[in-house]
């Protein structure tokens, strides 16, 4: 019967398109195309929300984002993610959870992470790691000598110095500008992981451990009223923070549904029902996903000069040249009116942490400045705490991608929301290798999720059509059986009636023959 599925499917699609065309002609006399008619019916029968209008808090509509993703961003980001430079991520997956006791021995097979062999790592990276260790050892010896001198000359009480801006200086790595996540100490349990061999997908990790980690993440978000969550609400900064985290969760849920493992069939497949339940039927979750994606694209565009000058050397000259070419195409667009350029400029950060001008007087303005400074610090601390929660994720592979994407999101925040004083004397930002790797890979994961939203909507629509096809086929069978039974009953009644009529005729003939016989006898 499988060869009959496509004709039946086309038959039902044809009916839907025909009715859609008739409906379209009644809307103000405007005739729509078959594609519009199909989209109309798909939006009516699917639970996945229809992607129309603009993305919340961004000056870009869904159609523009989808078009730019398919034609421009997704191919470039996919190419970069497979290159040597972006394939390896250095991370410590063995740190203890700082908030509660978590059993990190995940018993699920797909939770485990495959570490790199020594020969896989680019030799130039190993050399630079060794140089970095030597520099850090010298700095430690210098700090020790300074501490000894202070003990003799009188130690300085630094407690008050840790209040305010300098409170987070200990989180910075080397000469890097302010970073927004808990940073790793080099070579203390850190290993290189091949991201291509450890993709983000369904592992079976769920239950109390996963819920506790996500609850801890959202406990560090700002408390917002329903009105403040809507685009145009009063506190943009708090809303942006929440939407970035919620959008990242939507992306993660999409990836789990995109590559779902079926134990019975021992295969990976896109789980449409899981996507619809976790993401598709919640409009705000899809909006948050697109918002986070556009925020990352804004960061990549804003850091374009630094990314173009970054050293992508891995020892493979041909591969490194392809990286430079792809990065150039990623951060620069051929036209200011192109869909890609619109996505680059979709998020406008100019109003973030800026006075609203709603108060009069120097004292009120100074108070507003203090409140904004406090809000920025709170923004910083909350995100830093979320980065620490990643060490509490019980699944090793989930922890890997959680740490990578939180670092990528933190790097984007540093780029987009960073202050002028966070830059170097030349006015540029400096990045560590892990920050660049995580930024591009996080953007790739988000682009993959955005692309998957429309694909899942099509899959859901196809599933509904197939369900109707099977139900219609079943209905035809039931009706056919019913008609056959009715016809059979009619035939049986007819036969029975004819038999009775025949019996009556035979009875009359028998009576007549008996009468004739009796007359002859008389």
UniProtKB/TrEMBL annotation:
Disulfide bonds join 106-111, 395-398. May function both as a monomer and a homodimer. It is a peripheral membrane protein. PANTHER family: ERO1-LIKE PROTEIN, ERO1-RELATED. Its cofactor is FAD. The chain crosses the membrane at residues 467-487. The active site is at residues 395, 398. InterPro entries: Ero1, ERO1-like_sf. Residues 496-512 have a biased composition (Basic and acidic residues). This is Endoplasmic oxidoreductin-2. Residues 496-522 are annotated as: Disordered. Keywords: Disulfide bond, Electron transport, Endoplasmic reticulum, FAD, Flavoprotein, Glycoprotein, Membrane, Oxidoreductase, Redox-active center, Signal, Transmembrane, Transmembrane helix, Transport. GO terms for biological process: protein folding in endoplasmic reticulum.
């Amino acid at each position: 019967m499988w060869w009959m599925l496509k004709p039946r499917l086309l038959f039902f699609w044809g009916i839907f398109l025909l009715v859609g065309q008739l409906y379209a002609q009644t809307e103000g006399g405007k005739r729509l195309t078959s594609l519009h008619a199909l989209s109309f019916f798909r939006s009516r029968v699917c639970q996945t929300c229809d992607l129309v209008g603009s993305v919340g808090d961004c000056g870009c509509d869904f159609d523009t984002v989808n078009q730019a993703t398919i034609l421009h961003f997704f191919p470039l980001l996919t190419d970069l993610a497979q290159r040597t430079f972006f394939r390896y991520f250095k991370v410590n997956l063995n740190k203890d959870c700082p908030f509660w006791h978590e059993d990190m021995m995940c018993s699920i097979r797909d939770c485990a992470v495959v570490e790199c062999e020594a020969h896989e790592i680019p030799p130039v990276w190993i050399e630079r790691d060794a140089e970095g260790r030597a520099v850090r050892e010298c700095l430690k010896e210098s700090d020790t000598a300074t501490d000894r001198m202070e003990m003799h000359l009188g130690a300085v009480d630094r407690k008050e110095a840790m209040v305010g801006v300098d409170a987070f200086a200990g989180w910075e790595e080397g000469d890097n500008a302010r970073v927004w996540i808990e940073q790793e100490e080099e070579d203390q349990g850190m290993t290189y992981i091949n991201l291509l061999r450890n993709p983000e997908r369904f592992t079976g990790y769920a239950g109390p451990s996963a819920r506790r980690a996500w609850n801890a993440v959202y406990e560090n978000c700002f408390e917002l009223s329903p009105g403040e969550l809507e685009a145009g609400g009063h506190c943009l900064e708090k809303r942006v923070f929440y939407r970035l985290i919620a959008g990242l969760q939507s992306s993660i849920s999409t990836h789990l549904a995109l590559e779902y493992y079926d134990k019975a069939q021992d295969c990976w497949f896109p789980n449409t029902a899981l996507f619809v339940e976790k993401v598709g039927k919640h409009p705000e979750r899809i909006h948050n996903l697109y918002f986070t994606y556009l925020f990352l694209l804004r960061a990549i565009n804003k850091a374009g000069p630094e990314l173009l000058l970054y050293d992508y050397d891995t020892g493979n000259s041909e591969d490194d040249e392809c990286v430079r070419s792809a990065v150039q195409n990623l951060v620069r667009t051929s036209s200011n009116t192109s869909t890609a350029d619109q996505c680059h400029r979709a998020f406008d950060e100019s109003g973030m942490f800026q006075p609203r001008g709603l108060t009069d007087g120097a004292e009120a303005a100074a108070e507003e400045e203090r409140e904004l400074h406090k809000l920025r610090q709170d923004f910083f601390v909350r995100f830093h705490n979320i980065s620490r929660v990643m060490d509490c994720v019980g699944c090793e592979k989930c922890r890997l991608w959680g740490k990578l994407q939180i670092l990528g999101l933190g790097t984007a925040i540093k780029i987009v929301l960073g202050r002028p004083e966070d830059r170097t004397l030349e006015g540029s930002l400096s990045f560590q290798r892990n920050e660049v790797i995580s930024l591009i890979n996080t953007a790739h994961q988000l682009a993959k999720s955005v692309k998957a939203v429309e694909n899942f909507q099509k899959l859901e629509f196809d599933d509904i059509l197939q369900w109707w096809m099977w139900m219609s086929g079943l209905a035809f069978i039931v009706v056919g059986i019913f008609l056959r039974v009715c016809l059979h009953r009619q035939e049986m009644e007819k036969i029975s009636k004819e038999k009775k009529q025949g019996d009556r005729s035979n009875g009359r003939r028998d009576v007549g023959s008996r009468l004739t016989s009796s007359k002859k006898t008389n």
